Amino acid sequence: MVYAVRVVYRYVRRYFKFLLVGVMNAAVDLGVLNALLLAFPTRSPLVLMAYNTIGVMAAICNSYLWNRFWTFGDIATGSRREKMKFALQSLINLVLNDAILVGANDYLVTHRGLPYMLGSNLAKGGAMFVSSSVSYVFMRMFVFKRRNVLHLETHRR
Fold first, then answer.
1. Confidence (pLDDT) at 24
2. Where are the alpha helices (DSSP H) in the chain?
3. CA atoms of 138 and 121, how far apart (whole Å)
């Protein structure tokens, strides 16, 4: 019973660390996106997607550092394979984020008549929620996956 409680505690603690890193990533992502929208206003979906891509990439760099060394620090290896998996996860995150942002922004601004900055930020919030949820699953189950100790012992012999 005590072991089960420790395991649950470890997963809950890791998830809350991930959420805190997510808040930092959101600040970076939204900060970059809004700075670009304020400095270089646009209504072009392609330019909006480019601004979003820059913001997401900045957040991805922040995410890798914090998740690699803090959230998943006990199981992350920093290996080339792990970095490649993180890059693949990041690409999926970026494509999903861009697609949701552009689609939701079009709907909110064109069909609902919201002001562009408000629609863009609401769409971005939805994009961040969906892509970060998918990202957690990918990072926990695919990127920073604890290797089977028994398998490692067998493989070393």
1. 96
2. 2-39, 45-66, 80-106, 116-138, 149-156
3. 25
